[in-house]
Amino acid sequence: MSKKMMLLVNPYSGRGISKTALGDIVTQFAERDYIVSVCLTKERGTAAIARENAADYDLLVCVGGDGTLSDTVTGLMDIENPPPIGYIPMGTANDMATTLALSRNINTAVDTILEGHPVPLDVGSYNGEYFTYIAAFGAFTGVSYKTPQSAKRALGHLAYVFGGLADIATIKPQKTRVEFDGGFIEDSFIFGGVTNTTSVAGLVRLQPSDVDLGDGKFEVILVRNPVNVQDFMEILTSVTTNAYFSENVRLIHTSRVKFTFEEPVAFTRDGENGGMHTELLIENRSRAVQIIIDDEKESEFIV
Fold first, then answer.
1. How many domains, in total, are found in the chain?
2. Are 155 and 95 in a shared domain?
């Protein structure tokens, strides 16, 4: 019996997708008895399409970058029993693809969707907004949504690196109260990230053993303002060696986190503008959606 599949394609993501590649994707699913409906989206148009139509399908596959996946998940959050998500990564950073051990080769990604199985994925929420892998403030967090799409296409991941280097001079420490399960911290931070991923812009990485994508917990990374060269070197060492347990870098597991600032602070949400906030409560929507992964890769990111 044929199954219905919605294929959401963001043609603006990364370096784009060719008509030939798109045709190959449709053909491969059609050969496995899927009736495929193709929707080409605008850069931020996926959520509305998913919200209004996904309930009528057995499978939803999105083709694009982390922002496309995030928008797709946002749309599914308003559906009582959303279909599982297949993800074919075509973006620049592709942090979620890295975390999910998904190939950037289109044919391999399609095979994973056809042969793999769905696993639960936590979703973060705040003020009616949703994110799949990060909400953050501070150093480098504005790079993704401030970098022109033309630069991302031309330079790929280097666009983020160059953008981050240009951002160093503007880093401003934020005096912050951070409340989490069982405690709180008050200090000046140059970065705060609420994550459900093992990779952030390909620069900051977490050990797979520290991350369970469906455990109802975030991994919150806090980086104190370095007051001397020794502090700065300790932070650099912590980040490059994935050791987030120093005096200047903290890793906290929590189901909710509240930030309170002395002045409005800019957040990024899955690489997009997340607004300005003086107070922000972020909560974990445990196992809100399901995403399809390779059976052999599950142990790499789900404890």
1. 2
2. no
**Is the pLDDT confidence value at 239 over 90?**
no
Handedness of CA 274, 70, 20, 152 (dihedral sign): positive
Whether 267 contacts 136, CB under 8 Å: yes
CATH number for the domain spanning 14: value is 3.40.50.10330
Domain extent for 52: 3-115
Instruction: Return the beta strands (E) in the chain as ranges.
Output: 3-9, 34-40, 59-64, 85-89, 117-126, 129-131, 134-138, 174-180, 183-195, 199-200, 204-205, 218-224, 249-254, 256-269, 272-293
The string of pLDDT tens digits covering residues 176-232 is: 999 999 999 999 998 898 999 887 765 566 777 778 999 999 999 898 888 887 887
